[in-house]
Design brief:
Blueprint lengths: L11 H19 L4 H4 L10 H14 L1 H11 L12 H4 L6 H21 L10 E4 L3 E4 H25 L18
Antiparallel strand pairs: 1-2
């Protein structure tokens, strides 16, 4: 299979399916992981797996569904609220990872139920809203961004964890693009 053609877009069912998987991936990956791995990062101003989970919680609490609803209710008449991409750094740094993962799983399930309750048609994916920096965006773009946002942070976690083994892999580093960045 190759890349999608211009006429082939992410469907609502595909988006929901991808979004439903993230909490399970994170739970399988991070539950029981030693604290030093959970709080590892790539240096000042970068995020650990623990902080990434907090960011995903903040996004599911304040970003995706409110923007989807705003597109449906107001279209382009008003710009979305600006998203605080760093709120998780200031909030909730004392919860155990299991608590964060449970919270994220619950929020994501709630959001997917709420998304389903909107009873969107595929034609709704073309409806437009206004991003404060990007201008006109569609509901379909918002949903695809939500999916890729999850994957972006899963890749970030993989990179941070892999860096902890950078010196340990020896000459195989040449075959590990994850460590080349």
């Amino acid at each position: 299979m190759g890349f999608r053609g211009e006429s082939e877009r992410l469907s609502l069912d595909e988006a929901a399916g991808h979004l439903a998987r993230t909490p399970f991936v994170l739970a399988a990956w991070l539950r029981g992981m030693p604290e030093e791995w959970l709080h590892a990062d790539e240096g000042p101003g970068t995020w650990s797996p623990y902080v990434v989970v907090g960011h995903l919680i903040h996004g599911d609490s304040t970003l995706w569904l409110p923007r989807a609803r705003m597109i449906l209710e107001r279209g382009e008449s008003a710009a979305f609220e600006t998203f605080d991409r760093f709120a998780q750094v200031r909030e909730g740094q004392d919860a155990a990872i299991d608590e964060l993962l449970t919270t994220f799983s619950r929020l994501r399930a709630d959001n997917l139920r709420a998304l389903s309750a909107l009873r969107l048609a595929e034609s709704d994916l073309a409806r437009r809203g206004r991003h404060p920096d990007l201008g006109a965006v569609t509901l379909g773009e918002l949903l695809a961004t939500w999916v890729v946002h999850d994957w972006n942070h899963l890749a970030q976690i993989a990179r941070v964890l892999a860096r902890r083994l950078d010196a340990d892999v020896g000459p195989w580093k040449a075959y590990l693009p994850l460590l080349a960045r």
